[in-house]
Write a structure and sequence with these properties.
- Pfam families: Trigger_C, Trigger_N.
- InterPro entries: Trigger_fac_C, Trigger_fac_C_sf, Trigger_fac_ribosome-bd_bac, Trigger_fac_ribosome-bd_sf, Trigger_fact/SurA_dom_sf.
- It comes from Desulfuromusa kysingii.
- GO terms for molecular function: peptidyl-prolyl cis-trans isomerase activity.
- The protein has 343 residues and is an alpha/beta fold.
- The protein has two domains: 111 residues, Alpha-Beta Plaits (2-Layer Sandwich); 160 residues, Orthogonal Bundle (Trigger factor, domain 2), CATH 1.10.3120.
- Helix content is 60%, strand content 13%.
- It has a four-stranded antiparallel beta sheet. A two-stranded parallel sheet has the order 5-7.
- Helix 4 crosses helix 6.
- The longest helix is centred in the middle third of the chain and has 35 residues.
- The termini are far apart.
- 14% of the residues are buried.
- The mean pLDDT is 88.
Length: 343
């Protein structure tokens, strides 16, 4: 592969990526050989070059398209890394017409991340709402259990249903559970307050096309979650259009884009690095979500490394979380009026 920076400005860059002809030909030949398995009788009987074989096959254009779709993300990521660019979005992909035996050349125009002026991110003064577990919460939770199991005020029936020996034991377990919930909600409130303060303290502009790109990703995820019929029903029942949904999503999406811009800039400013142990931990966590028991960690990692963009996504996630943890650690917190966990 060879990469050339054709044009660069503060807002965008145009790069040219050239993949040599032999690499393309070898990849397409793999597709050809898979298609020819069990069909040797249909293959030409005379010895032909790879290029001639591919030129005669009607599926070659389809295979070439598949190969390039698989290869281009990897070459693109390598090019961005080599040129040390910070793209926010791809604006245009312009492949040049080619044929078997010639290199594949594509020009890609990308929007670059804006320069972020960091004003303050250490020692942020942050007010947050702590969440606490009270005796009233314990009573409320047990009352909910009585209703759920239909035991009324019969303590013995409730204890039998829940396999506890005494009400004190049940109350202790309930308190332990809701205290864990309160602690989790408190940490979430602290994190949310820190990120809001960070954005308010360091104003920046979220590029419009990045917001639009994120909105389209969220709409696509909603579409996949609901399915075609479910999406149509949702739009009909809510009396909304796609434009309405985008308008509703936009404020939160804009905040998310700004947050990521700031956290990325801070990570670079502090020169944070991703360690091998951190990568392993996140991959182990993800691998546990896979229901295939035969998939080992090594196999999962290999699959992740071979899938374009996956490892980059994990690395970015680690850096973002590491940066958030750093800001929280160095923030100055002020507690507001506590909130009950079951409020």
């Amino acid at each position: 592969m060879s990469v050339t920076l054709l044009k660069s400005s503060q807002e965008e860059a145009v790069i040219s990526i050239k993949i040599d002809a032999q690499t393309i030909e070898n990849a397409i030949m793999k597709q050809y050989k898979v298609a020819m398995e069990g069909m040797e009788q249909d293959a030409p009987t005379l010895p032909l070059s790879n290029q001639k074989l591919l030129s005669l096959h009607p599926q070659t254009d389809i295979w070439a398209s598949q190969v390039l779709n698989e290869m281009l993300p990897v070459y693109y990521n390598n090019a961005i890394s080599e040129l040390k660019l910070k793209p926010m979005a791809i604006r245009q992909i312009k492949p040049k017409k080619t044929k078997i035996g010639e290199p594949y050349v594509v020009e890609i125009r990308v929007a670059l991340a804006p320069e972020i002026e960091l004003k303050e991110y250490e020692g942020l003064k942050v007010s947050y709402t702590p969440v606490i577990a009270t005796d009233e919460d314990v009573i409320t939770q047990i009352a909910s259990m009585r209703e759920q199991h239909g035991t009324g005020d019969d303590d013995d029936a409730l204890l039998k249903r829940l396999s506890f020996d005494s009400m004190e034991q049940l109350k202790t377990e309930v308190r332990k559970t809701i205290e864990a919930q309160a602690e989790e909600k408190t940490e979430l409130n602290k994190k949310t307050a820190v990120l809001k303060t960070l954005i308010d303290t360091n104003p920046c502009v979220a590029p419009e096309e990045v917001i639009e790109q994120q909105l389209m990703v969220q709409l696509d995820q909603l579409h996949q979650q609901l399915g075609e019929q479910g999406m149509n029903k949702y739009l009909k029942d809510s009396d909304k259009t796609i434009k309405d949904i985008k308008t509703e999503m936009r404020p939160e999406t804009e905040v998310e884009v700004k947050k990521n811009l700031l956290l990325t800039a801070i990570a670079e400013n502090k020169n944070f690095k991703v360690t091998e142990d951190e990568v392993k931990q996140i991959l182990l966590k993800q691998s546990r979500l896979i229901t295939d028991p035969s998939l080992s960690y090594e196999d999962f990692r290999k699959r992740a490394e071979e899938t374009p963009g996956v490892m980059d996504h994990f690395n970015r996630s680690i850096l973002i979380e590491k940066t958030i943890a750093y800001i929280i650690k160095h923030a100055v917190f002020q507690k507001l009026e506590p909130q009950r966990v079951l409020n």
